[in-house]
Amino acid sequence: MICLGLGSNLGDREGNIAAAVARLAAWPGVTVERVSSLYETAPLGYTDQPDFLNAVASVSTTLTPHELLAACLAVERALGRERKVRWGPRTVDIDVLFYDDVVLEAAELTLPHPRFHERCFVLVPLAEIAGEAPVYGGKTAGELAAACDDGTVRFFGKLRQGG
Ligand SMILES: Nc1ncnc2c1ncn2[C@@H]1O[C@H](COP(=O)(O)OP(=O)(O)OP(=O)(O)O)[C@@H](O)[C@H]1O
Ligand SMILES: Nc1nc2c(c(=O)[nH]1)N=C(CO)CN2
């Protein structure tokens, strides 16, 4: 399984995530399989910023991990992401959470994403679309999500797609 994490906390957050999913779905070689609901989440890391909307999408792809990352970064750029503060506000952020069993430890691409397994804003939406999948240390997304439930993640609603 290949999963992407999406987040937005600037502008039309829901529209930004919907646009990112639509652009990924239109990317040659990328098929979006499942998209979670949206969750409203308190900012982690740099906390003096607006709440995020987060979602997770599973994809299948003919792209290599690096090509998939390049697609994600291109979609971020197309949607007007400016990099200013690490862990700061963003129009849209797309992380490659994991790519099957691929393990990579380069600065430009680390797989699995080094922090996904401890981030409630990733685990809760991931559990919605792939709760039974063992995703980290032999634990399923559902188990990890239950363990991380810290009250910072609230169901927000279904993503409007195709709009
Ligand atoms: N698994 C990955 N998914 C996305 N980007 C990655 C991954 N591993 C390394 N990177 C690199 O990290 C950079 C993204 O940095 P970015 O500013 O989005 O970090 P961040 O989203 O603020 O923090 P975090 O990585 O904790 O989510 C990308 O340019 C990319 O090259
Ligand atoms: N709730 C939440 N907090 C964050 C997020 C995010 O997507 N959601 N992304 C960050 C940088 O990757 C830093 N902090």
From TrEMBL:
<keyword id="KW-0289">Folate biosynthesis</keyword>
<dbReference type="GO" id="GO:0003848">
    <property type="term" value="F:2-amino-4-hydroxy-6-hydroxymethyldihydropteridine diphosphokinase activity"/>
</dbReference>
<dbReference type="InterPro" id="IPR000550">
    <property type="entry name" value="Hppk"/>
</dbReference>
<keyword id="KW-0808">Transferase</keyword>
<dbReference type="Pfam" id="PF01288">
    <property type="entry name" value="HPPK"/>
</dbReference>
<dbReference type="InterPro" id="IPR035907">
    <property type="entry name" value="Hppk_sf"/>
</dbReference>
<comment type="pathway">
    <text>Cofactor biosynthesis; tetrahydrofolate biosynthesis; 2-amino-4-hydroxy-6-hydroxymethyl-7,8-dihydropteridine diphosphate from 7,8-dihydroneopterin triphosphate: step 4/4.</text>
</comment>
<feature type="domain" description="7,8-dihydro-6-hydroxymethylpterin-pyrophosphokinase">
    <location>
        <begin position="86"/>
        <end position="97"/>
    </location>
</feature>
<keyword id="KW-0418">Kinase</keyword>
<keyword id="KW-0067">ATP-binding</keyword>
<keyword id="KW-0547">Nucleotide-binding</keyword>
<protein>
    <recommendedName>
        <fullName>2-amino-4-hydroxy-6-hydroxymethyldihydropteridine diphosphokinase</fullName>
        <ecNumber>2.7.6.3</ecNumber>
    </recommendedName>
</protein>
